[in-house]
Amino acid sequence: MATLCRVRHRWKRIKCAHVLTRSLTGKFDYDLVVIGGGSGGLACSKEAAQFGQRVAVLDYVEPSAKGTKWGLGGTCVNVGCIPKKLMHQAALLGTAVKDAKKYGWQISGPVCHDWATMAEAVQNHVRSLNWGHRVQLQDKKVKYLNMKGSLVDEHTVKGLTKAGKETILTAKNIVIATGGRPKYPTNIPGAIEYGLTSDDIFWLKKSPGKTLVVGASYVALECAGFLTGIGLDTTVMIRSIALRGFDQQMAGLVTDYMEAYGTKFVRKCVPKRVEKLSSGALQVTWSDINTGSEHKDTFDSVLWAVGKAPETKALGLDKLGVKLNKETGKIVLGADESTSVPNIFAFGDIGEGRPELTPTAIKAGKLLAQRLAGHSTQLMNYDNVATTVFTPLEYGCVGLSEEEAERRHGKDGIEIYHAFYKPLEFTVPERDASQCYLKVVCERGGDQKILGLHFTGPNAGEVTQGFSLGFQCGATYSHLLQTVGIHPTCAEELTKVNITKRSGLDATVTGC
Amino acid sequence: MLFKRICRLLPYPSVSVSLALPRKQLFSSFRSSSRHALIRRSMASDPTATETTRFDFLVIGGGSGGLAGARRASELGASTAVIESHKLGGTCVNVGCVPKKVMWNAAVHAEYLHDHSDYGFDVENFRFSWETLKSKRDAYVSHLNRIYRNNLDKAKIQTIHGHARFTSDPEPTVEVNGRKYTAPHILIATGGQPSVLSESEVPGANLGITSDGFFELETLPKRSVIVGAGYIAVELAGILCTLGSKTSLIIRQSGVLRNFDSLISTNCTKELQNAGVDLWKNSQVRSVRKTDRGLEVTLATKDPEKKNEEDKIRTIEEVDCLLWAIGRHPNTSGLNIGEMGVDTDEKGHIIVDEFQNTSRPGIYAVGDVCGRALLTPVAIAAGRKLAHRLFEGKKDSKLDYSCIPTVVFSHPPIGTVGLTEEEAIKSRGKENVKIYRTSFTPMYHAITSRKSQCVMKLVCEGKEEKVVGLHMQGLGCDEMLQGFSVAIKMGATKADFDKTVAIHPTSSEEFVTMR
């Protein structure tokens, strides 16, 4: 606290100096300078420009350890949501070919997948989006600078080009939206030298081949899922639990499905070292946490998906005293996205405790721009954020996990309605639907307000959005039941669910 | 004694399948129904005195609505029977939603197969076997029939096989295969069937089939002609065309789905043409003739701009599937409901109030036979609500028919709930209606050479911009709609949509990011 006060005091003085400078030299170059041209930064800068603000956005991609680099748009467009969903789509088509045969399609010969064709198409699409973002900035009169930005003081940003040329920009407000980058493990020999991360996988020209994915986050599972789906031998190595923070029953269903789908899982194990054999293959040695025994196997690629680290190093935050969370390295933020330093704001993946999701960054960025332009006082509501994991069996959810609901309301305070259902599209191809499940966690008393809603199945992303709107409106269990179903869809099961977990009755849906 | 009486009743006109049963079995099944009472009427004034089986709840029609109502009533303790002349499950399971969606799924695979190479899969030679699909589809439908049968047995609901006809008894009573059944509460849930034109309207009309016949086709027609502009015509034309049949769709005006929002009507008409359906606008079938190379369908096309000009007459030859999808009509013939004082409208639909009461106390109707919102889930919900009202004393139990979501399994699918823009303007005035719309190419098509658009519209009313209608067509719209329909039923406003954080990357997120 004392430190904070001191910092504040110091800043007050500097601020005074700047007010003086401003009155001597006139206005700032810009009303707003945004560092980071990802989903959030772009949304924020375009929104501000729409309110007539003079805006500049700085974006610079530090190449990955493997040397991969990309254009404007940040993680989502280049090394996240977009290429990931397209490759997930490719994997779904891999499954569709198998289903198609059962649907009467006679396909001659084995079906092979060519990585280069897919990757090139995906990469071209991403490049077209990079271009689209530049055009949009131009249209909205936002100055785009392909420079690495860092803070000089609370109104000044220094931009550095690749060639080393410096530019100084002054701004009334500065927004940091530099996001994060995948981490490498620090203590595993060969990890960085021979390993890839999600920054590289989408930009490979050649198939990664037999792949070991280390980690159990949604990034790990999504990558392992699409690699399996396009026919690659894929193994996931998990130290403890999958999809930490998500409902664990659902997480189990997601990984069970993947296992049945062909993804191999090595559980309770940690990698020890990665070595390159003379054949070019990577030999990974790992140890079992429980027994300590060591195992080895060779892979063509090792993909580290062990978490993300915020991009704060080059920003010069410490110099200005911008408060960071010591553990995570993320910026500590107020509800209005303010940092500990006046006029400096931050949001998106770099913000402590913020969901690392594109739509929250976009929304938070737009709202921040509106507030900075004096057009609104509305704050971003980080509750009720729905999300979908695009694993081979998609998982969509909004609200609390069963564990969290139980923690907050007690086991007797919640009622869970659930159902195991069989998508009609699974019946003809005789696909196992054991993991197609939905769960509605409600308050037990009163109107049975919905606390959390979880759904695994085809199209979970498209199913979940509307329900998250209902959730936002305060839907109760009876609201679900009062809604007429749409037959035959998977989503209708959510309006038919009637078996409580407490009852112990079989939750399998039969008939229509 | 009892056995004799049954035999005496057998030669009645509506006797059908029961006759095939061994008499002993018939006898024992009759006897073993312990949950209902057998009453004897032997008043001197009634010479045709016969025994009438009495239930608490008698359901005519074993389709979605009837079965749902029966099972719920039984759960609530009512002795219940279901009368069905055909297969259990009704339209939905046998000749509707279920087999239709199986066919649609097969067609979706056809679309995927075109996209595979764009996604890196090497799928070159493929051929479609209708026979494989049909046998699997039939097997699945039979499986569902059995499930329904088991569900009824488990619920101790008696299934009576045959056609029901109301008798002239003072108390509402139906007769099936010569036997009489009564209950204080009788539910008519007989559904509907596809309409066909008469020979006098179109010579050769009976050479065509309907959606019922579509599900009997043993091979993929090479040349199909579908007549109609409703959702059934759209769905079947889409399926046939996508599976590789050369398909013509004959519509009387310039667009399909004319009672849908104009955005949907226009877009769906366009998508059909994009998919390769040969669309005949402003056209009607004049005659159909059988030749040794298939059917010859003669059509008259009128140019609406040139009122005085004569119709252009053209023929489509070598047609092996002419399908009428010109509407459906209620199954009431043979029920003898007129005599019961059950009122019907000019199209023969049974008129019911909001509680599903007909004009005759003790007789109710749900589902397609009422002609309102011809959808399985509507019939199911109405049947269940009625059961709760009748057997649980829930006086206010009724189905709210507002905001019923509907999906059309076209290519790509359509989702719609609430009012169309046109309806909203008509009821609230143009100044009170605000429209939000968007259209985009779904990300799935980012790397495919085949493209389809996604169009979306929100119809909002009043200052608070309450969302009263949501309409869309595009990939995934079938699964998108349900959740939105929950929220719209709750009275969601545009501000609620705006407050909702998107799920990225989906198509549905466009609804919560609309400006």
Automatic annotation (TrEMBL), chain A:
Entry note: cofactor: Binds 1 FAD per subunit.
GO terms of molecular function: flavin adenine dinucleotide binding; glutathione-disulfide reductase (NADPH) activity; thioredoxin-disulfide reductase (NADPH) activity
EC number: 1.8.1.9
Keyword Disulfide bond set for record: yes
InterPro entries given in the database record: FAD/NAD-bd_sf, FAD/NAD-binding_dom, FAD/NAD-linked_Rdtase_dimer_sf, GSHR/TRXR-like, Pyr_nuc-diS_OxRdtase, Pyr_nucl-diS_OxRdtase_dimer, Pyr_OxRdtase_I_AS, Thioredoxin/glutathione_Rdtase
Enzyme's top EC category: oxidoreductase
Cofactor section: FAD
UniProt-listed SUPFAM superfamilies: FAD/NAD(P)-binding domain, FAD/NAD-linked reductases, dimerisation (C-terminal) domain
Residues given in the record as NAD(+) binding sites: G215, A216, S217, Y218, V219, A220, L221, E222, G307
All residue ranges annotated as the FAD/NAD(P)-binding domain in the record: 30-365
Record-annotated disulphide pairs: C76-C81
Lineage: superkingdom: Eukaryota
Family designation: Belongs to the class-I pyridine nucleotide-disulfide oxidoreductase family.
Protein name: thioredoxin-disulfide reductase (NADPH)
Automatic annotation (TrEMBL), chain B:
Binding site for NAD(+): G228, A229, G230, Y231, I232, A233, V234, E235, G327
The protein, known as: Glutathione reductase
GO molecular function, one term: glutathione-disulfide reductase (NADPH) activity
Pfam families on file: Pyr_redox_2, Pyr_redox_dim
Biological source species: Xyrichtys novacula (Pearly razorfish)
SUPFAM superfamilies found in the cross-reference section: FAD/NAD(P)-binding domain (SSF51905), FAD/NAD-linked reductases, dimerisation (C-terminal) domain (SSF55424)
Keyword Mitochondrion: yes
InterPro entries (alphabetical): FAD/NAD-bd_sf, FAD/NAD-binding_dom, FAD/NAD-linked_Rdtase_dimer_sf, Glutathione_Rdtase_euk/bac, GSHR/TRXR-like, Pyr_nuc-diS_OxRdtase, Pyr_nucl-diS_OxRdtase_dimer, Pyr_OxRdtase_I_AS
Span of domain Pyridine nucleotide-disulphide oxidoreductase dimerisation: 404-514
Subcellular location: Cytoplasm; Mitochondrion
Biological processes annotated in GO: cell redox homeostasis; cellular response to oxidative stress; glutathione metabolic process
Paired cysteines (S-S): C92-C97
Annotated EC: 1.8.1.7
Active-site residues, Swiss-Prot/TrEMBL: H504
Protein origin, superkingdom: Eukaryota
Amino acids binding FAD: K101, D368
Lineage: Eukaryota, Metazoa, Chordata, Craniata, Vertebrata
Cofactor or coenzyme needed: FAD
Cofactor binding: number and manner: Binds 1 FAD per subunit.
Family as reported in the entry's similarity comment: Belongs to the class-I pyridine nucleotide-disulfide oxidoreductase family.
Subunit structure: Homodimer; disulfide-linked.
